[in-house]
Structure formats: structure tokens, C-alpha cells
Request: fold
Amino acid sequence: MISVEGVTKRYGTVTAVDGLSFTVDRGEVVGFLGPNGAGKTTTMRMITGTLQPDEGSVLFDGVPIMDGLTEAKQRVGYLPESNPLYDEMLVAEYLEHVADLRGLSAADRRTGITNAVDETDLGAVFYRPISECSKGYRQRIGLAGAILHHPEVLILDEPTEGLDPNQRVEIRRLIGSLGRERTVLLSTHVMQEVEATCSRLVILSRGKLAAEGSVQELLANRTGGIRYIVEAQGTGVTEALAGLAGVSGYETFAVEGRVRVQLDAATDEDLRPAIFEMAKDSGWTLWELHRERASLEQVFRNLTSELPGESEKEPAAASEGAPNGMSEGEPGGATDDEADAASLEVSS
Reply:
């Protein structure tokens, strides 16, 4: 449904996105991962049409979005990282305002707001000022504004940033529910969210594609991500295990008269039989032996260290017009928060 083809975006001498290509199929929930400054937000803004790439193109169903920008934006709902809201408005007033900006008819407005409030469970705060709403409810309000026009594509940039663990679980469950009927591109640094909600991952580093595939594929394809924990009592345990074929590194911990060794493997071959035979031949008492698959966090670190990420944030791109990627913008010198706030300003 979404095709990003050779997209490059520069801010002066800084290349934020560099020849990036990937696809998102209809109905997928895709995790969009990368270190800070990897180009995620810039890419999302190009997909929503609020930024134009310097090179390459973004296509919906094979048609470049710049060939029909207004129609393309009608198909997209966008929740930016900062989730800019008007604190002085009631929740009901804000959603009416977003519906106005979307140009919805009276009937579509009523239906859209009702469905969005039901999906995001905002009934308890519908007539409350936004300034009195908790962070979790504010995220729900942003999501409601992004979906009230029934978009086919939902772009979410760090939707659980700053939430407490309980709020994260609630928003994660909500995103999973929203993804049943929509194509979702989700940017996050929380790997639990990725594993719980995403069917596929796209990982960026330095504006380039580092890897893509399902969580299972990425875990299975990355060698050196398997770890063995061995706890044994005997002579020469650490030295023997460190010299075992297929071991690339180790760390040792003393445990009540015995030794606990953490082995990093350089091969996918299971080393447990060889470790067991070594323990038996050496006369060790084996207290523990198990293998741990690479975590998604380890895979992410390995992939992004191969193409080192930056600690700096991406250059900001100011967007003038309505929220959720509704009108076109040009790059400027604003901060990310200013850029997202600017996206809510409407010309009088």
C-alpha cells in the first residue's frame, strides 16, 4: 500500500534520509525503529505529505502522493511525537475543530467523532478541558483526532512517550485494536510494544535502511545473538568454557563457591551438548545450563551499531496548516515541538 522508493531528504549539508526504500502492505502494523537522529520523523512527515523528498518518491497504491496530495492526505491519520493540543478547549471542541479542518460534512463529523470517541474510550473526559486530562488521555485525544476521518493509514510517532507503565499497556492495546482495520506505521523505542503490536519491522540508522522483516526473521537471521548461561562447580570451568569452539566472548560471576559463566556464541549451532560433555568429562557439578535467544533489543543494538546512529535529533521541519499531515510544509529552523505545534495553526 505504501512504497518509499529511493527517498532522500537534506537540511542544508545534513542528510537526514539517504536513499531509503521500503514497503508497507495493506493491513500491516509495521514498527519503525532507529536511534535518535536516524531519520524516522523526517520519513514519517514525507509519508504524510507534510514534507517533500529531495529525491525519490512516496507512493500510495503505486501512485506518487505528490500527484494527488490532497487525496493522499485524506487517507492518512498522523499523531506526531509531541501531540500538540489546544489546552483551553474541551475535548469535544477539539474534535469538532479537527473535523472542521478535515472538511467533513455534518453527518460524517457526527459519525467520525462518535466512532473515534468509542474506539479510544474518551467518553469519561469528552466534556472536560484538555488541560485537565492526564497524559494517557491526551494521547487518546491525539489518536481520536487522527482517526475521526476514517483514514486507511495511521502514522504514529512515539505514541507512548512519557507514559507510565499502566498507560503504556492501555495505549499499546488501543494501537493493536486500531491496527485491525488500518495500515499502521509505528515509531517507538520500546521493544515490548514492538513485539506486542507489530507484524513487521523497518530499522533505520543514519537515514539508511539497516534491516526489515518480522521479529522472528530478524532474531533468526542475526548470528552472534545467542547466549549461554553455565553455572558449575569444579576446576578450570571458566578457562575450559572460554576455549570452547563457537564461543566469541564470556563474562564470569562468582556464586557461592561455584562459578557462573555467560557465554556469547558466534554460531547458531547449539553448544549445550558440548558443554554438557565437557562438564561430565571434567567432573564438574553442573548447577545450571540454558540458552537464551537474542532479544530484540540486542538485535537492534547490533544493527544500528553496524551503521552508527547519532545522538543528535533530526533537523526540524516546520509545517504550516492543520494537524495530522493535512497541509503541505517546507523545512525551516524550528524545533520539533515548534514544528508540530505549527501544524495545528490555521490561516485565518
Observations:
- The mean pLDDT is 84.
- The CA atoms of residues 204 and 210 lie 5 Å apart.
- The longest strand covers residues 14-24.
- The chain has twelve helices and 14 strands.
